[in-house]
Amino acid sequence: MELFQVKGKVCLVTGGGSGIGYGMALALVKHGAKVYICSRDMKKLQATADELTKRGPGSCYAIEADISKQENCKKVAEAIAAKETRLDVLVNNSGCVWGEALETFPDSAWDKVIGLNVKAVFNMTVACLSLLRAKATVDDPSHVINIGSIDGIRVPVLETYSYSASKAAVHQLTRTLANRLATDYILVNAVACGPFHSKMTKSTFEQFRDTILDGVALGRFGDNDDLEGMTIFLSSRASKYVTGAIIPLEGGVLIKANL
């Protein structure tokens, strides 16, 4: 069995219709996986699924869901279970951000961001447990990949209080779940992403592009090639001895010294 092999694997990427989720779904489809993507906008999601399938050899299918609600996480898992006997890879990517000055930062920003960025990661993982356990073995484990952020490691440049706190929570939740699920042969890791283009980051990048790039040692934004390499590694047997890790994918932001 090849190390960097995801052909035939069954995968779920939440928020797979755009941004980082799209890039990861694309990587899996390109390498022959069967990928389900979910988000709230079914029209756009279905168009993305059709486009990704054309870029096969893998295939992509859309599931409409607002996974900020626990019951909808269960419905997504049930929809997959109706068609599949297992889930090999779960990518918890859905997320949101809120930026506002300290003095006016609203309580609603905490509820929205923590709800989607943290609670949904937990709820979706729990909802998919039976599918993740179904075919997992010590030599071919199942994989949960949580999307964290460098802003969960460092102090963020912008005033995104609930976002940075939520991503730090995702990192710790990753470690906790990895420990709990190790004996089920379910590996749980997080990718601490740096600046990648997405719907969520569009306005921020437009306003602060030069400032952001000045803080990246490699001097560029991340792209789909970067996501592809990390996705295939963490979804395949190549990473079968890696769990509970928080892996930076950020072009050297964390080593950059702005003197």
Which descriptors would you attach to this protein?
259 residues, alpha/beta, Rossmann fold, seven-stranded parallel beta sheet, 8 helices, 16% strand, globular
Question: What is the topology?
Answer:
Layout: E1 10-14, H1 19-30, E2 34-39, H2 42-54, E3 59-64, H3 70-81, E4 89-92, H4 107-127, H5 129-133, E5 142-149, H6 161-181, E6 186-193, H7 202-214, H8 224-235, E7 246-249
Parallel strand pairs: 1-2, 1-4, 2-3, 4-5, 5-6, 6-7
Helix pairs in contact: 1-8, 3-4, 4-6
Summarize the structure.
This protein is α/β, with parallel strands linked by helices and 259 residues long. 42% of the residues lie in helices and 16% in strands.
What report would you give on this structure?
This protein is an alpha/beta fold and 259 residues long. It has one domain: NAD(P)-binding Rossmann-like Domain (Rossmann fold). 42% of the residues lie in helices and 16% in strands. It has 8 helices and 7 strands; from the N terminus they run βαβαβαβααβαβααβ. The chain has helices at 19-30, 42-54, 70-81, 107-127, 129-133, 161-181, 202-214, 224-235, and strands at 10-14, 34-39, 59-64, 89-92, 142-149, 186-193, 246-249. It has a 7-stranded parallel sheet, sandwiched between helices. Helix 1 (19-30) packs across helix 8 (224-235), helix 3 (70-81) packs parallel to helix 4 (107-127) and helix 4 (107-127) packs parallel to helix 6 (161-181). The longest helix has 21 residues, at 107-127. The radius of gyration is 17 Å and the shape is globular. The mean pLDDT is 94.
CATH class bucket: Alpha Beta
Overall 3D form: globular
- CATH topology: the name is Rossmann fold
Biggest sheet strand order reads 3-2-1-4-5-6-7
CATH homologous superfamily heading: NAD(P)-binding Rossmann-like Domain
Q: Tell me what the CATH architecture is.
A: 3-Layer(aba) Sandwich
Mean residue pLDDT: 94
